[in-house]
Structure formats: C-alpha cells, structure tokens
Specification:
single chain, mainly alpha, two-stranded antiparallel ribbon, 7 helices, 4 strands, 5% strand
Length: 276
C-alpha cells in the first residue's frame, strides 16, 4: 500500500468530510476561472490553483486572464475582500491569439507539445498553424519555439479579463484541456505497451538462441537479466500509477490523479482537426 493509500485508509470521518468540502469548494472556484491553463498563477493549470485557494494556500488575485472581474468572483466565493491583481503574475490585458509565421516554422512540434488545449496542428518537419477559435492566449507556445516564429496578436481591442472572454469559451477550453490530458495518457500507455512487447520479443529471441560457447552463454544471460529488469521496472511503474479505485477514478479530472504523460518514442503531433 502506498503512503497516500495508507493516509486515505486511516483518515477519520471528519477528515473525509473536510476533504469533500474542500473538493466541492475547489470545484466552484475552478468553475470561476477562465480555463486558459496559462500557469501564470504559478500552478500547473486552473485546477491546482483552485485547490490551493480552497485550502487557503493561495490568494484570489493571481489570474491575469480573469482580471479584476475574475478576482471579484473568486473573492465572493471565498468570502474575502477583492485584492488588486498581483503584478508578479502578470497584468490584465486584451486577449491575444498565437500566430505562427509559417515562412519561418521548421516543424519542430515543440509548440504543439506545449499547447494545453491542442489548438496547434501540424506534423514533424511540416508547417504548423494555430486554430484561433481554440487558442486561449496562454502564450505557452512562444518560449519553446527555437526560431521565434510565434507572436501573440491582441484580438479583443480594449476589452480585457472576462470582458474579452466568455463562459462558453472557458467551458470549451476546459473540455479541450481534459481531452488533451486523456490523449497524453492514452499515448503514454500505448507507447509503454509497445516497448513492453518489444522487450518481451527480444527476451524470447534470446531464450531461443543457442549459445556456441560458455562466453556467449554468459553474454546472453547478462542480456536476459537486463531485459527482465527493465520489464520489471516498467511493471512496478504501471502498478504505482494505477489508482486504487481504478473503475471509478477519472484519470484526468484531477491533475494529481494520474502521472504526467511521457512522450512516446516518436511524439505524435496533435491530431486535432480544424473546427467547422
């Protein structure tokens, strides 16, 4: 049993009720965030920030995309006075959309991997493009670009915060964020299964291979041991990542419920299609 599992098993009814209350508050706070998943708040997405606010570990003034109106909404839910936006996390600005200079793009896929809502499409060594209707303006794609071919273009005039963003847009962004997390988990699992199958096939081939000398036999045994150790490490890793209540657990609805998705052998670009 893992430490977290042991903590859960030993939790008192009062602790369970407190956790449920904090979870419910985090749900309400998350619903008030714009779902840009920009990480400017200092957390890896809107949900972790909402959970930190619910626990009293973060103030409500760390979300530049939500701006002053977003702070007011969060403060009302928390029962505290609104605070000015913390400038260390950014400033309230008109919403921007990423735009790729396709004449400079080298098709490295780094922006695709960085986009939290799969709003960039393209293939390795091929031109990439941004789907503006899905871009949240998080600007997470800008820094990884090795040729500096991505610009953030303001698209809302003087409107900022929630005046430049709507609830349907926030709902769509959250849906696409969760879908991306599901895709990454699926790709990680498929890649791990593919590697496990290759290792098992190699191990079986070694077992079938006849050694012509004692030295060759010893070399085969060393190879077998290495492959078997790798297979066992992969098995233990999968076991550790499996939720206790696997049937009921949602692997993507809570960021801490599943391990970060590992990149496959050959990272696949987003298979997102342009909205109709």
């Amino acid at each position: 049993m893992t430490a977290s599992a042991a903590d859960t098993a030993s939790a008192s009814p009062a602790d369970v009720r407190l956790d449920a209350a904090l979870d419910a508050r985090a749900d309400r706070l998350e619903a008030l965030l714009p779902q840009t998943q920009c990480t400017k708040c200092g957390f890896q997405g809107c949900r972790p920030y909402a959970e930190a606010m619910a626990r009293g570990e973060a103030d409500c003034n760390r979300c530049p995309p939500g701006g002053a109106e977003g702070i007011r909404r969060l403060a009302a839910e928390l029962g505290v006075a609104p605070l000015p936006l913390d400038p260390t996390h950014g400033t309230e600005q008109p919403r921007a959309v990423a735009r790729i200079d396709e004449t400079l793009c080298i098709g490295c896929t780094l922006c695709i991997q960085a986009c939290p809502v799969d709003a960039i499409v393209g293939a390795a060594k091929q031109m990439h493009t941004v789907l503006p209707d899905w871009c949240t303006g998080c600007d997470l794609c800008v820094a990884p670009c090795p040729v500096d071919c991505i610009a953030m273009i303001p698209v809302t005039g003087e409107r900022t915060g929630w005046d430049a963003w709507s609830q349907p847009q926030a709902d769509q962004a959250r849906s696409r964020y969760l879908s991306r997390k599901q895709r990454l988990v699926r790709e990680r699992e498929e890649n791990e299964a593919r590697l496990a199958a290759k290792a098992a096939a190699k191990l079986e081939a070694l077992r079938q291979e006849a050694a012509s000398s004692e030295a060759e036999r010893q070399a085969q045994e060393r190879k077998k041991a290495i492959i078997q150790a790798a297979i066992e490490r992969a098995r233990l890793k999968r076991q550790a990542a499996q939720p206790l209540n696997a049937a009921a657990a949602d692997p993507v609805d809570r960021p801490d419920a599943a391990p970060a998705a590992a990149a496959p052998d050959h990272p696949a670009p987003s298979d997102t299609k342009r909205p109709q």
